Amino acid sequence: MSSIQVILLERVEKLGKIGEVVSVKPGFARNFLLPQKKALRASKANIAYFEAQKKSIEATSATKQKEAEKLVKKLEGIKAPLIRQASEAGQLFGSVNSRDIAAIISEISKEEITRNMVRLNDNIKTIGLFVVEVVLHPEVKVELTVNIARSPEEAKMQADTGRALIADNNQYEEEPVASEEVEAETEAETASDSSDSESEE
Q1: Domain of 34?
Q2: How far apart are CA 14 and CA 116, in angstroms?
Q3: Which pLDDT score, from 0 to 100, does residue 1 have?
Q4: How far is CA 106 from CA 5, 43, 58, 191, in A?
Q5: Predicted structure pTM score
């Protein structure tokens, strides 16, 4: 079976909105949509159930959206510090995953944030400041900063400066000069030399 049909109980990004019947891969339905109660199999019985409960389901979603919008205000501006062991070059001995991030945000905000709410394409493997998206509701998202450092002091310095600390010389990495700027300076010096040579002749 290449796909199955489900009826959505909430808006699912890139898939559809409440009440839509959509075709999805069986694994996606079985492992994500159905266990998280985001959808029901689109059987005649379930479609009839949805139609009977539609107003109630939409009202519940609207209530949760309002609660999520209030929570955004509480979470905005958070810079969640995570202290981890790392090499002098900043490589973590291990990695930071969505569960770790959800736990620290929950601890700081005193609100329940689950790992499923944290959008993380790959585990984080270096120290530094990382912007992470947290989905509080299908219609409500917030971006938070995760501050991964080797010590509370280093985390504070990173938060104050917005840059990762290089451990071996305790200095922040200097911005490299753009190659275009170097080329422009070289061309200017060459032109100046040529001009001087011509005037001497």
Answers
A1: 4-65
A2: 17
A3: 54
A4: 35, 38, 27, 61
A5: 0.69
